[in-house]
Amino acid sequence: GNGAVQKGMPHKVYHGKTGRVYNVTAHALGVIVNKRVRGRIIPKRINIRIEHVKHSKCREDFLKRVKENERLLKEAKEAGKTVNLKRQPQPPRAAHIVKGAEKPVLLAPIPYEFVA
């Protein structure tokens, strides 16, 4: 939150948490936030002033992805092809040769010596 405004500042437990707005008043918002209490997660309703709230960026990324998927689908339909719109995990990096100034050092364990 904005530290210059002390009114309506959420408790430290709720700083940086994502929640859903359920109520709007003149100067504040009612937000449902999940709080971990021992072994369970409890949805808590807290009132926060507007200065301490900001939009989540994940929604923007989702809407951008939807727009891109619609564009790809439209282009594929015009070309008469099928296109996979599912997100894929990052593939492994391609093989490459590592070059160094010095020769690699072979590491081996020291042989065990029994001292009686």
TrEMBL record:
GO terms for molecular function: structural constituent of ribosome. It comes from the Eukaryota. InterPro entries: Ribosomal_eL21, Ribosomal_eL21_sf, Translation_prot_SH3-like_sf. It comes from Vanessula milca angustifascia. One of its GO terms (cellular component) is ribosome. Gene3D superfamilies: 6.10.250.3260, Ribosomal protein L21. Belongs to the eukaryotic ribosomal protein eL21 family. GO terms for biological process: translation. This is Large ribosomal subunit protein eL21. Keywords: Ribonucleoprotein, Ribosomal protein.
